[in-house]
Amino acid sequence: MRAAILREPGRILVEDIPEPAPDEGEVVIRVKYALTDGTDLKAYLRGHHLIGYGPFGHEYSGIVAKVGKGVRKFKEGDAVMGVNTAPCMKCHFCRREMYSLCENLTKNMVLGTYAEYVRIPARVVEVNLFHKPEDISFRVAPMLEPLACVVRGVENLGEIRPGRRIMIVGTGSVAIMFAVLLKDRGDVFVAGRRIEALNRIRELVQVKTLLMGEGFTQKAMDLSGGYGFDIIIDATGSPRAMERALGILSKGGKFLVFSGVERGTTLSIDIHSLHYGEMSIVGSFHHTPDTVRRAIDILRKNHEKLDFLITHELPLERIEEAFRLMMEKKALKVAIRP
Ligand SMILES: [Zn+2]
Question: How far is the CA of 179 from the centre of ligand 1 (A)?
Fold first, then answer.
């Protein structure tokens, strides 16, 4: 079968590799669509500690092609969607119900969806693979994974009282997902450095926007009556953007570090303000079985808005072009058809 292989940073080859066969409890699916995302882009640009090199891609939808021994939930020909991992339920963190921190996530990981066929590990089949509802298209269905992560991010913010000022920093697909989820739950702004992207978000999601140019801090403080924002979500992964955004966090505010950054990245933080202002900095990584289930519902209700995030569609052989479009910020998400 044809599969995209990440050889080294900046180099993807589409090669012939053996078709996977399902082990006990596993299924193999014929991939209909795989979507690009920021994690894969990072892997393409500089490598990724959870992905490594080889077959990659983890957002998918497809048709069950082969079923391993003992699988009852699925049969050949079923239309399915799912996410990339499932918690083991046995490790230190799973026993504490902190499923996104499962120590065995990478042992139960779907990797290699930029291919004609992909193997789904038994834990994922059991917990996080679903029959695709008819009202969710094969094209949009792979968004279940990033959306479940965004739902987890919102969950990690705790209760959001009505009327709170929320700032989402970033103009990529994840920032837009946050905007879709939160727009009716507060006074929502999206901030970023590219004016065309902000205009598009304002039109698509009907939220307010703020350009992160000169005078950003002053404007943000003016917009919030001098208090700053109650909730700030970083969807850039840029330390510089984070530092600027932290400067407009209100007393009592929460700052969500959503986007992954390189190992060793540090920020200088004003601890005086953090302490006397009772501010919190919260991390969020991955998803849990619960947020995955909630994401299915959100996917259904916002199908059209989310389909809009797929700006390009390309065959597998042109996958490198997809990442170039992402890198040049010409594409939000690219749907790959293997
Ligand atoms: Zn675990």
Answer: 30
Q: How far away, in angstroms, is 101 Cα from ligand 1 center? A: 7
pTM greater than 0.85: yes
C-alpha 128 to ligand 1 mean position (Å): 14
Q: What is the pLDDT of residues 60-115, one digit of tens each?
A: 999 999 999 999 999 999 999 999 999 999 999 999 999 999 999 988 899 999 99
* Domain-located, residue 215: yes
Say if residue 313 is in the same domain as residue 250.
no
**3 state SS of 91:** coil
Q: Is 154 within 8 Å of 182 (Cβ atoms)?
A: yes
Name the domain count of the chain.
2
What count of residues does the chain have?
Answer: 338
pLDDT digits (tens, 9 = 90+) for 273-323: 999 999 999 999 999 999 999 999 999 999 988 999 999 999 999 999 999
Backbone phi and psi for residue 54, each to the nearest 5 degrees, phi listed first? 135, -155
Q: What is the CA(276)–ligand 1 centre distance, in A?
A: 37
Task: Give distance in angstroms: CA of 98 to centre of ligand 1.
Answer: 8
Q: How far is the CA of 108 from the centre of ligand 1 (A)?
A: 10
If you measure from the C-alpha of residue 144 to the centroid of ligand 1, how many angstroms do you get, rounded to a whole number? 21
* Residue 97 resides in a domain: yes
Give the E-state strand segments of the chain in sequence order: 2-8, 11-16, 27-35, 54-55, 60-67, 79-82, 117-120, 129-131, 165-169, 187-192, 208-211, 229-234, 249-257, 280-283, 310-315, 333-337
Structural domain for 61, as ranges: 2-132+308-337
Instruction: Give one DSSP letter per residue of 68-88, joined into a string.
Output: -TT--S--TT-EEEE-S----
For residue 88, the CA-to-ligand 1 centroid distance in Å is 4
Same domain, 205 and 274: yes
Same domain? 177 vs 239: yes
CATH number of the domain that residue 158 is part of: 3.40.50.720
